[in-house]
Design a protein that fits this description.
The protein has 2 domains: 5-163, Hexapeptide repeat proteins (UDP N-Acetylglucosamine Acyltransferase, domain 1), CATH 2.160.10.10; 164-197, no CATH class. It contains no helices and 26 strands. By secondary structure, it is mainly β.
């Protein structure tokens, strides 16, 4: 295994854990107690909040913002300038006008399943879960959970189809069977849930 590579201009807290082979690029910030797996790529200006957990082989593209307490599975892709939020009821001040502190709110996180992809400038509004191998289109705003393999678009995001592990939209074969045009893998849809055949 190779040691992590951290750009001199990156800000990585000494209490963060960075996995073997992970690369942290220019101006990225990794906060205290964050855990990054092996062979991740953290792009320029990306932000990883305190205590965030990121699996192996994850790509955070430039300026992606991952706020605590997010959890990202192995092989997740977060596109440029995408945001994973953490506050259901955001306010800078309390009702009496006092500046809020960490004690005045409870952080809620976004969970991203294995192999899922979040497109450029998409926003996932916590608390939501994006299922395994799902694809959130660029610019979408996710306000409710996304099933495994779902393709979601729009504001608010809605499912318009299914995707396979290759990320390509699946093609209907009939009788609830869907096929990946790239790999040939087949999936079966039952009651709004897609499973490998």
């Amino acid at each position: 295994m190779s040691e992590p590579t951290i750009a001199p201009t990156a800000d990585v807290d000494e209490r963060a854990t960075i996995g073997d082979g992970t690369r942290v690029w220019h101006l990225a910030q990794i906060r205290e107690e964050a855990t990054l797996g092996a062979n991740c790529n953290i792009g320029r200006g990306a932000y990883v909040g305190p205590g965030v957990t990121i699996g192996d082989n994850v790509k955070l593209q430039n300026y992606a913002l991952v706020y605590e307490p997010a959890r990202l599975g192995d092989g997740v892709f977060v596109g440029p300038a995408a945001v994973l939020t953490n506050d259901e009821y955001p306010r800078a001040v309390t009702p009496d006008g006092r500046l809020k502190t960490g004690d005045d709110w409870h952080a809620v996180g976004v969970t991203i399943g294995e192999g899922a992809a979040i497109g450029a400038r998409a926003v996932c509004v916590a608390p939501v879960t994006v299922g395994r191998w799902a694809l959130v289109a660029a610019g979408a705003v996710v306000t409710k959970d996304v099933p495994d393999h779902a393709l979601v678009v729009g504001v608010p995001a809605r499912r318009i189809g299914w995707v396979g592990k290759a990320g390509r939209p699946l093609v209907a074969k009939g009788d609830g069977v869907w096929v990946c045009p790239e790999s040939g893998d087949e999936y079966v849809e039952t009651d709004g849930v897609l499973q490998t055949r």
